[in-house]
Design goal:
By secondary structure, the chain is mainly β. It has a single domain, classed as Beta Barrel (Elongation Factor Tu (Ef-tu), domain 3), CATH 2.40.30. Helix content is 9%, strand content 51%. It has 1 helix and 10 strands. Strand 2 and strand 3 form a beta hairpin.
Length: 96
């Protein structure tokens, strides 16, 4: 039971506060990580009402580029494999 609680607390989750679409259709979502951690190269899921999308983390941004972000960090996450029309503020980004 203790391990299950640890897993639930440490699973990556970030409410999406804003969405930007850059060149080459790279989507950047911003927000504050609620729990867990995310790394460049991770596959994440984007939860929208009624749909679920998978995307790959291409880069993490916090006034420059980083490779790991932890709970409490306000970050931008560059995603590949999703279109800007598929995600909007209020959706959730989670670990897969």
């Amino acid at each position: 039971m203790r391990q299950l609680q640890k897993f639930a607390i440490s699973m990556f989750e970030m409410p999406i506060e804003d969405v930007f679409v850059g060149h080459n259709e790279i989507v950047v979502v911003t927000g504050c990580i609620a729990s867990g951690e995310v790394r460049v190269g991770d596959t994440v899921e984007v939860h929208t009402p009624g749909r679920l999308f998978s995307a790959k983390v291409v880069a993490l941004e916090v006034f420059g580029y980083i490779t790991v972000a932890l709970a409490g960090d306000n970050i931008g996450v560059r995603l590949k494999g999703i279109h800007g029309d598929d995600v909007w503020p209020g959706c959730r980004l989670t670990g897969k």
